[in-house]
């Protein structure tokens, strides 16, 4: 998948390729059509929040998104492939954000 990738804290980042994720239980894979630039994105990119929460490098920034459900993980109810959704990534760590297409997993409750 294409994504905006920050390989190290403080790096400017660039568009590159990452493996396409698969949704796990309770998750959706969303093909992102729009991603907002959140106030936390530069903080995560610079590494300022790494003492408060886990960061997984290379980092894909992005918290907010709008797009279409591409696939649904086990146990997800109320969402189907093709549904238009918006929300926040909802991960307990930074690094699999919404600056990707399709984006990393979203917990179904955050759509």
Q: Helical proportion?
A: under 10%
The CATH superfamily name is Medium-chain alcohol dehydrogenases, catalytic domain
> In one word, what is the shape?
globular
Helix count from the secondary structure assignment: 1
CATH topology: Quinone Oxidoreductase, Chain A, domain 1
Number of strands: 9
Which series of helices and strands comes N to C? EEEHEEEEEE
Q: What structural class do you assign from the helix and strand content?
A: mainly beta
| Major sheet details | 4 strands, antiparallel
- What is the CATH architecture annotation? Alpha-Beta Complex
Any low-confidence stretches, pLDDT <50, length ≥5? none
Itemize the secondary structure elements and their pairings.
Layout: E1 2-5, E2 14-17, E3 27-34, H1 40-46, E4 55-60, E5 64-72, E6 84-88, E7 94-96, E8 100-101, E9 105-107
């Amino acid at each position: 998948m294409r994504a905006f990738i920050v390989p190290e804290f403080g790096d400017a980042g660039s568009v590159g390729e990452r493996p396409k994720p698969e949704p796990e239980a309770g998750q959706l894979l969303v093909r992102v059509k729009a991603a907002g630039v959140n106030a936390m994105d530069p903080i995560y990119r610079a590494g300022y929040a790494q003492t408060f929460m886990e960061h997984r490098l290379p980092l894909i920034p992005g918290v907010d998104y709008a797009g279409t459900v591409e696939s649904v993980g086990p146990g997800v109810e109320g969402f189907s492939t093709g549904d238009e959704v918006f929300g926040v990534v909802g991960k307990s760590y930074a690094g699999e954000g919404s600056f990707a297409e399709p984006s990393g997993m979203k917990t179904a409750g955050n759509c």
